[in-house]
User: Fold this.
Amino acid sequence: MTQGKLSLFSITPIASAILGLSLSFNALANTNQPDAMAGMTLPQDNKYDWLQLTSLEVLKGELKNLYDDKLEFDSDNLDTISIDWEDIKQLKTAQPVSIGFTDLSTKTGILVVKDGQAFLDGQAFDPKNIMTIISGEQKEANYWSNKITLGANFRSGNTDQIDYSAISHNTRRTTESRFNLDYLGNYTKTDNQSTTNNHRINSNFDWFISKQFYLRPIFAEVYIDPFLNLDYKATLGSGLGYNIIDTSKTEWSISGGPAYTYSKYKQVEQDQRQSDGSASFVLETSYETEINKTIDFNTKYRGQFASSDAGGYSHHAIASFEVELTDIFDLDLSFVWDHTNSPQANSQGLIPEQNDYQFIVGFGIDL
Assistant:
């Protein structure tokens, strides 16, 4: 009996030591592995840009740009992805980038972001002062982004009908300014008879005086719609704007200013003027939000207040859902509402409808 007790006491300390050592190793592994990832140093690489997310995931690839707190990164394995700026823990670029700061200054160099600090060619600064980043040197090709959405419908049989629609968004964005050029066109032909043929071009130039405020020295719009009895309607003005919401997921801005509107009509009644000009005021608001990783919702309203001879109050409103199919292609669903309060009667005295509605289904291509 004594010999059995001694054997038991001899084994117990050894088993306890082994159990304690195993628990210590497990605790060390569970504790130190995340710490090691959190404190890791990104590779020194002259070929790839590297970033680490706050989730401690590491990506290599090419930084494209940073606008509105969203970083576009071309991952070596995941293709082009969009990342919230607040989700980035570390960042290191292989080649120089152009940075626009909140004080509207611009600098170029190798960027490193780590532990809440940023360095540009070794010079430390607060990363909160970054407003925009453009990949590479300040070259013209790095400033442009373009998207084209095309839709078509063909019918044959009792009725032969062809529908075309096109939407184009073109933006030139630098660290201090923004230039937009948008186009929306629709054409329908039924039994060799044109029933829809309208085209709208919008353009504006913005100069940022802060992250929220911007001057709009010039904005312009040309609208052609013979079925609205418009040979063309041209508007030219200037104003200012303000970013109400500017986060990584949602943008909401409002802008406006005085303008001059000139309208030339296709047909007019006898003793009526073929054209008319008027002072006007233009108010515009734009809202964009990310519903989830693959669906965005965008809407824009542009209201114009002019004399009744120039059409009175009119507006152009568009709301779109953009569904990402691939990195390049989107499925775009757009609803368009055009309104003219006082349309001009034609030579027979017929007054066009005040409202035009369109629902456009198209495939978008990011260029």
